[in-house]
Request: fold
Amino acid sequence: MEGWSYYWENRGSRLLLTAYVVAFFIFLIAPILIVVVVSFSATSYVAFPPREGLSLQWFQRFWEYKPFLNSLIVSIQIALLSAALGALLGVPAALALVRSRRRLANTVMTFLLSPLSMPLIVLGFALLFFLSRIGFGVSFLSLLIAHTVVSLPYIVRTVAGVYRGISPEFEETAAILGANRWQVFVNVTLPMIKPGIFAGALFAMLISLDNLPISYFFGSAETNTLPVVMLSYLEHQFDPSVAAASTIQLLVAIVGLVILERTYGLQRIGMPT
Reply:
């Protein structure tokens, strides 16, 4: 009897766990699937499921409506440039802070990670005042700086995490064998921290593509990103073209992940080599 009791108890726990996992994935994926399905709707209003068949008219509307297309280009440019700039600034900072023995290092690391704990509305408001004060105003450069500030903590955190798990003996051995600091970095350190850089840059690009609060403060005819244009569009019209824009934005993120998987491998990201 004890064996049967244990069997049914174990089987019941597995069924509950399976049901919980299925419900969890439905909760996460169902809203995305609904938006994708609505983007193919043939009706002139948002309805789920589509009542008059499927159509690509809202993707054509996205292509013909210049603010959507122009803002998508701006979003991709800002995402790529902010990730690159964040890597240029964040990687040296993470390497220096991880190996530093000064008490100030922890304070500086906390300062670099602080944008993660601040409301983006407050951060965007503060950056708008600061960048306007030093003469940048509302411009593409200001938008790039603001997105880099938001992206920087992800790159610093992932690179620092990977670098902290690497023994300093590798670099010390290369230095003893005659390599200078640049050679040690290029031939020893950089290959080992590449997973952290890729992971941080990936997070930075995804956060930038989806960012609305920061982009909203720096929006103009030339610097509007896709989320800002979608919000402005929704204030006056409510048709499935916004769902089509969301689907295209989702497709951009998926294409980026596929390219990363083909060129580097997602499983290697975040793991020391």
About this structure: The chain has a mean pLDDT of 86. Residues 2-39 form the longest helix (38 residues).
